[in-house]
Design goal:
The complex is a heterodimer.
Chain A (H helix, E strand, L loop, with lengths): L9 H10 L1 H23 L4 H17 L1 H14 L3 E5 L2 H14 L4 E4 L3 H5 L2 H6 L4 E4 L2 H8 L17 H12 L7 H18 L2 E4 L3 E3 L4 E6 L3 H7 L3 E7 L3 E2 L2 H16 L6 E6 L12 E7 L22 H5 L1 H6 L10 H12 L16 H5 L6 H15 L5 H14 L2 H14 L4 E2 L2 E2 L7 H4 L4 E2 L6 H14 L1
Parallel strand pairs in A: 1-10, 2-3, 2-4, 4-7, 5-8, 7-10
Antiparallel strand pairs in A: 5-6, 6-9, 11-12, 12-13
Helix pairs in contact in A: 2-12, 3-12, 15-17
Chain B lengths: L1 E4 L3 H5 L2 H13 L3 E3 L9 H6 L2 H14 L6 E3 L2 H13 L4 H12 L1 E3 H8 L8 E9 L2 H6 L4 H8 L2 E6 L14 H4 L1 H18 L3 E4 L2 H13 L5 E4 H5 L7
Classes of the chains: A alpha/beta, B alpha/beta.
Pfam family, one (chain A): LUD_dom
InterPro entries (chain A): 4Fe4S_Fe-S-bd (IPR017896), 4Fe4S_Fe_S_CS (IPR017900), FTHF_cligase-like_sf (IPR024185), Helical_ferredxn (IPR009051), LUD_dom (IPR003741), LutB (IPR022825), LutB/LldF (IPR004452), LutB_C (IPR024569)
Function (chain A): Is involved in L-lactate degradation and allows cells to grow with lactate as the sole carbon source. Has probably a role as an electron transporter during oxidation of L-lactate.
């Protein structure tokens, strides 16, 4: 699955989301739950703002010295007998994984959840070589079984589906005959996947944070599938995007705490897995062969720009869980595997503006995202910065808007002209005014009055009243 | 204390009563209010839409207008936040930036000015009603003002304040967002309106003309009985005089 998913046209995707009452109900209750849980678990820490600042400092420092830490990580992995490959592009990364699979004469691969491999379309690449690739994270597995339905949420990829729909997917595709009770479904999936784990030649994982000082890969999961993917197959390939790294275990501690609390409102998830290289002589399980693929895929172009802090993202989806726009349109409306506010920021950076020019506008700039982010990414400011590039550099703003803004710029910086305009507003709008309201405005006002009334411009502006009052005061 | 009023474009044209109440309220607590007539708009529509060249022109105009003011007070959290944004917007123009910082240092949203600068918590208002308050996003998240309006409202005689469910959610105005993404904006405002109705309040109070225009406009369309008032009108209200 590539970075961009679903319908090409933004408005089509939005309408589809708005019309999907089922999905919206599911998203609403999920958002509610995740938001409340995060609130409670972050309050537990005491001074949450201080923790956010610390998180931000760690991410800023790491990104400022990314070259140093990546080199250190790579050396440490090699020291422990692992192989490291730096992939400049998705294609290079895929080619490397395919080559490993060929060398191992692999037939089946099990995967634990990884967004960067989605971004690279790694599964498609491997399947085109005739390999069987099985997603083992429950949410990812549901989507895979449902004819590769795209993910709609960064942490909970199948958030848009409710239990009944999930039950139907398994009934249709896998002959499931039990209830839509979560336990029943999970038990069924567990049975399905158990064999896959035992059969797999290669396990592929993502990476929440790599620890530079020891060459360790850490995974933050709740289902235990990550542990099986890294314990049973003989070969393990971990794929990480280049910014998902911390200097030492001390920072890992902070980041994992921020991640667990922000993502699912837990102190810790059920499994925090740390893996360092292939298994040693005295270890019972773990891979005999370990590969780390570090993926750039456009990220180094973001370094050193005003968007660098977008790379601080730890993929906790706290911003998604508080976003009122996401709440109403759902994740698929973003047309990207990265959805919600962070998706609207990241997607244009990784995929360009041409196909993503609407995303930065899919926000009322309420800044709930910025307030929620555990590492203080100024998400709403990034959205404004994107808009500036779209209108002023890429010249992708719609023509009427451009003219309207030009007129606004001229009018609002020339007081005389401005006063004349606001004085005339009442008269100009009179044909559309009924009582004190406008219900069917002309031209650009139409989008407003389709759903709301507009108060008619006042016949006596505030400034008229003030001038009159001043005159009568001085007459006294 | 001398205060220059920045009325904002919506305040000037659509909500003159909120402006009048602001003036009377400030005078009541001992301020002398002047109104520089060269003022226009804060430039937010252009800034938020990404037209920063235009926004810079408008920002410079505002900076010029309030150059000699001791304090600039505005009955809008969002526009106050925009005034604070100027120094960032004018990066790369050091002279203007210094001026922008000076403006930002003396600019306040009305309730913030009353509580933080004048130390006024009780404006002597009396208003018998059941009301709920809409917390505007820009005022709380960008300007970081959340206590002041609540404090002031809690001292209004006879006013029963009801908690608004999901008060942290945006009403869907977002300036140009409301006309650029009208369908999404509508869903957001509908949710807000249903939360307001849930409180069974008779009055919705807000401190931002933009939000009030959006929520009030939707409630008008739905023929909702809830009355919309700017916080300045409430804080200036006395049962005898209205």
């Amino acid at each position: 699955m590539p970075l961009r998913v679903g319908e090409k046209d933004f408005q089509t995707r939005v309408n589809r989301g708005l019309e999907d009452a089922f999905m919206r109900g599911t998203v609403r209750s999920a958002q509610e739950q995740l938001r409340t849980r995060k609130q409670a678990s972050s309050e537990e820490l005491g001074d949450w703002e201080a923790w956010r600042t610390l998180g931000e400092e760690i991410r800023t420092h790491t990104l400022e010295h990314l070259d140093y830490y990546l080199e250190q990580l790579s050396d440490k992995v090699a020291e422990r007998g692992g192989h490291v490959y730096f992939a400049k592009t998705a294609e290079e990364g895929n080619a490397y994984v395919r080559q490993v699979a060929r060398e191992k004469e692999a037939k089946k691969i099990v995967k634990s959840k990884s967004m960067v491999t989605e971004e690279m379309s790694l599964n498609d690449a491997l399947e085109s070589d005739g390999l069987e690739v099985v997603e083992t994270d429950l949410g990812e597995y549901i989507l895979q079984v449902d004819d590769h339905d795209p993910p709609s949420h960064i942490v909970a990829p199948s958030l848009h589906k409710n239990r009944a729909q999930i039950k139907d997917v398994f009934a249709d595709k896998k002959g499931y005959e039990n209830s839509d009770n979560a336990n029943d479904i999970t038990r069924f999936v567990r049975g399905e996947l158990r064999e896959e784990f035992l059969d797999a030649d290669i396990g592929i994982t993502g990476c929440n944070f790599a620890v530079a000082e020891s060459g360790t890969i850490s995974l933050v999961t709740n289902e235990g599938n990550g542990d099986l993917v890294t314990a049973l197959p003989k070969t393990q390939i971990s794929v990480m995007s280049m910014e998902r790294i911390v200097p030492t275990w001390e920072e890992l501690d902070v980041m994992v705490s921020l991640l667990c609390r922000s993502a699912v409102g837990q102190k810790l998830t059920s499994y925090i897995t740390a893996l360092t290289g292939p298994k040693s002589e005295d270890e019972i399980d773990g891979p005999e062969d370990f590969h780390l693929v570090i993926v750039d895929n456009g990220r180094s172009d973001i370094l050193g720009t005003q968007f660098q802090s977008a790379l601080h993202c730890i993929r906790c989806a706290a911003c998604v869980n508080v976003c009122p726009v996401y709440r109403h349109v759902g994740g698929h409306a973003y047309g990207s595997i990265y959805n919600g506010p962070i998706g609207a920021v990241l997607t244009p950076l990784l995929d360009g503006y041409e196909d993503n020019k609407d995303l930065p506008y899919a926000s009322s700039l309420c800044a709930a995202c910025t307030e929620a982010c555990p590492v203080n990414i100024p998400l709403h400011e990034h959205l404004i910065a994107h808009r500036q590039i779209i209108t002023e550099k890429e010249n992708l703003g719609p023509m009427p808007e451009k003219w309207a803004m030009k007129m606004f710029g001229t009018g609002a910086s020339a007081p005389k002209l401005y006063r004349l305009g606001s004085k005339q507003a009442h008269r100009v709008m009179r044909p559309w005014t009924k009582g004190s309201r406008i219900s069917n405005g002309p031209g650009p006002l139409k989008a407003w009055t389709n759903f709301r009334d507009l108060p008619a411009p006042s016949s006596e502006r505030f400034r008229d009243w003030f001038a009159k009052r001043r005159r009568s005061n001085s007459d006294e | 204390m001398n205060v220059s009023l920045f009325i904002t474009c919506l305040g000037d044209m659509f909500y003159p009563n909120a402006g009048k109440a602001t003036v009377e309220l400030l005078e009541k607590v001992g301020c002398t209010v002047d109104f520089p007539t060269q003022q226009t708009c804060c430039g937010q529509p252009a800034f938020n839409s990404g037209y920063h060249k235009e926004a810079r022109k408008v920002a410079k105009q505002s900076i010029e207008v309030f150059k000699d003011s001791a304090y600039v007070v505005t009955p809008s959290g969002s526009c106050a936040a925009m005034l604070h944004e100027y120094s960032h917007l004018l990066e790369g123009e050091p002279e203007w930036q210094a001026e922008a910082e000076a403006l930002s240092a003396k600019s306040y949203e009305l309730t913030q000015f009353l509580v933080d600068v004048l130390k006024v918590e009780n404006t002597g208002a009396s208003f018998h009603a059941k009301a709920t308050y809409h917390t505007s996003c820009h005022m709380t998240r960008l300007l970081q003002v959340s206590e002041a309006p609540q404090t002031l409202l809690s001292h209004v005689d006879g006013l029963e304040m009801l908690d608004l469910p999901r008060n942290y959610d945006c009403c869907g105005f977002g300036g140009t967002f409301a006309v650029k993404m009208p369908e999404i904006s509508k869903e957001m405002v509908d949710e807000k309106v249903s939360c307001i109705h849930e409180t069974q309040a008779d009055v919705l109070i807000g401190a931002d003309a933009g939000c009030l225009m959006n929520i009030g406009g939707r409630m008008d369309r739905e023929n909702s009985p809830v009355k919309v008032m700017h916080i300045a009108e409430v804080l200036n209200y006395t049962e005898e005089g209205g």
